[in-house]
Amino acid sequence: MGRQKPPLHPDNLGTFTMITGDSSGVSADIHDRMPVWLTAGQADEWLVAEPEDAIAMLLASEPAAMEAYRVHRAVNTPRNNSELLLKAVA
């Protein structure tokens, strides 16, 4: 028997959107796009901002500190789901 999740509030669609921008920092060597980073306080402000202001916030966002390292190729298959996939490989 599988674990049941609590039902969502009727107004909660259970969805999200990931906004991406040009890559920078360590991710630039890996991919040409990366997530746009907003702080928790900025997210609330962004949701109610006028479109021009919202775009300006996204363009001015600072990426979080990231570290890049090689991982096993098995990470590319969605059916593989293991913490071992997070380990660095030579």
Overview of this protein structure:
The protein is α+β, with helices and mostly antiparallel strands. It has one domain (20-86). 20% of the residues lie in helices and 7% in strands. It is built from two helices and two strands, in the order ββαα. The protein has a two-stranded antiparallel sheet. It is flat and about 45 Å long.
Question: How would you summarize this macromolecular structure in one to three sentences?
Answer:
The protein contains 2 helices and 2 strands, in the order ββαα. The chain is α+β, with helices and mostly antiparallel strands and 90 residues long.
Topology:
Blueprint (H helix, E strand, L loop, with lengths): L19 E3 L10 E3 L4 H9 L2 H9 L31
Antiparallel strand pairs: 1-2
- What's the shape? flat
Number of domains: 1
Question: How many whole angstroms does the radius of gyration measure?
Answer: 18 Å
Separation of termini?
A: 40 Å
Q: How many DSSP helices?
A: 2
* Main β-sheet, spatial strand arrangement: 1-2
In the predicted model, the low-confidence regions spanning at least 5 consecutive residues are none
Mean pLDDT: 85
Structural class: alpha+beta
- Strand % is 5-15%
Fraction of residues in H or I helices: 10-25%
SSE order, one letter for each helix or strand: EEHH
Number of strands: 2
Largest sheet: 2 strands, antiparallel
